Amino acid sequence: MTFNSQYRPILDLLVCPECKVGLRAQEDKLICSNCNSEFTGSNGIYNMIGGQLNEHDLEQQRVADETCAGYHKFLTTRPLYGLIRDKYVFPYWLKDSFDGKSILDIGSGTGWSTCVIAARASMLVNLDISLERLRFAKARLEAQNVIYVQGDMKKTPFPDKKFDIILSYGSLHHLDNPETAIAEIGRVMNKNGVFLAIEPNIKFTWVEFWNEILHLPKPLEKRITNLYKVMQKYTKKQLEKEQPYLKNIKSKEKLHEGIRDIDWYKNMFAKFSFKLEYQPVGLEMVPPRLLMSKNIILVESLLKCSQWCINRFKKGKNAYFNIMRATRDADGATTK
Ligand SMILES: C[S@@+](CC[C@H](N)C(=O)[O-])C[C@H]1O[C@@H](n2cnc3c(N)ncnc32)[C@H](O)[C@@H]1O
Ligand SMILES: [Zn+2]
Q1: Count of CA atoms in the C-beta half-sphere (13 A) of 329
Q2: Which backbone phi and psi does 150 adopt, to 5 degrees?
Q3: Is the pLDDT of residue 314 over 70?
Q4: How far away, in angstroms, is 234 Cα from ligand 1 center?
Q5: What is the reported pLDDT for 96?
Q6: Helix-strand-coil split of the chain, %, nearest 5
Q7: What is the pLDDT of residue 257?
Q8: Looking at the domain 55-202+258-282+319-328, which fold is it?
Q9: Phi and psi at residue 103, in whole multiples of 5°?
Q10: Which atom of ligand 1 is nearest to the CA of 75?
């Protein structure tokens, strides 16, 4: 990739991820005007990682690279994920118009979730740590206003206040330290900007769900818990059959160590002077195998049922996911 004058828009967009100062173009390199770090790119994907990734992030990167196609196929063949995206997440997010906005998708992966909004945006920047996932996304969507950047969302290569909308579709919980990414979001989001996210909630099982409603006698609860454990093993085996790459990921729990409940997010956003609204979505009321069914009518009914329970029994804390929307406090306070 040669960075000549036609790359002016890129020079306005990218900064050194360490020093946050501008870059100068020199043939096939971008060079930090402060620390002289060099950045390159290939096939239209800018490599802006800079410095050495820590062990956690290297493992995220390895797994994301290796699971790219399998993960995308899984998302597209299970109606659960498409239904949550199309019936719950985007309708909630679209309270904010995307038209003509500059949008940053952090942890954009294969672009499964947010490439659908590219046509509305004036600019959509996809940031991911995995080159394979960016390549995959780029092969699916190539457009003048869509930019692909390899980078770390805890240390982004963008100037202050650059974006109107920042999105995270299930990415923050992949970090060892989500708090650092929230600080970065505050830095690169403009004053009237908005941060939209969906993140998984702390796990609650269908046994816990029914026990809380029916107050099962202890011996029965124990039996059902045992049944749950047997079914879990069976589900795990079935899923591994469909996605053989899962077997090679020994560090699955570690990769998701950033999962937090909504109270954590409330406190964290308050700390960075953001106001947070949220909507819990999805409940594990039945064994997950049923939610993973390919029968769209069954899954849609289960989801409707779970939203009813969330409202009727105030079961938001048991939800699968929280859809979030964060804006700056009314006084326009900035992050520290
Ligand atoms: C669950 S996937 C979500 C992908 C995408 N948002 C979607 O909806 O399909 C999480 C993504 O976060 C990326 N990721 C993990 N750690 C990251 C980091 N430190 N910086 C940037 N991306 C990261 C992974 O490579 C992966 O693509
Ligand atoms: Zn620098």
Answers
A1: 11
A2: -85, 125
A3: yes
A4: 28
A5: 82
A6: 45, 20, 35
A7: 83
A8: Rossmann fold (3.40.50)
A9: -120, 135
A10: 9
Taking the C-alpha atoms of residue 45 and residue 56, their distance in angstroms, rounded to an integer, is 23
| Full DSSP string of 268-312 | HHHHTTEEEEEEEEEE--S-HHHHT-S-HHHHHHHHHHHHHHHHH
- Check if 67 has its Cβ closer than 6 Å to any atom of ligand 1: no
User: Hey, what amino acid is at 200?
Assistant: P
Does this model's pTM top 0.90? yes
Same topology between domain 5-42 and domain 55-202+258-282+319-328? no
The finding on whether 171 has its CB within 6 A of some atom of ligand 1 is yes
Assign 138 to helix, strand or coil: helix
Residues with Cβ within 8 Å of 194's Cβ and at least 6 positions away in sequence, in order, are 96, 164, 165, 166, 325, 326, 327
302: left (phi over 0), alpha (psi -120 to 50) or beta: alpha
- Please identify, in words, the CATH class of the domain defined by 5-42: mainly beta
Q: Which of 65, 115, 129, 158 to mutate to test the pocket of ligand 1 (most atoms within 8 A of CB)?
A: 129
Bridging pattern class, strands 319-328 and 189-200: antiparallel
Q: Are 321 and 201 in contact (CB under 8 A)?
A: yes
The model's pLDDT over 116-137, given as tens digits with 9 standing for 90+, comes to: 899 999 999 999 999 999 999 9
The full set of domain ranges for the chain reads 5-42, 55-202+258-282+319-328
Contacts of 203 by beta carbon, 8 Å cutoff, 6+ apart: 259
- Contact in structure between 122 and 164 (CB atoms under 8 Å): no
Closest protein CA for atom 12 of ligand 1 = 107
Are 1 and 9 within 8 A, CB to CB?
A: no
What number of other Cβ atoms are within 10 A of residue 79's Cβ?
19
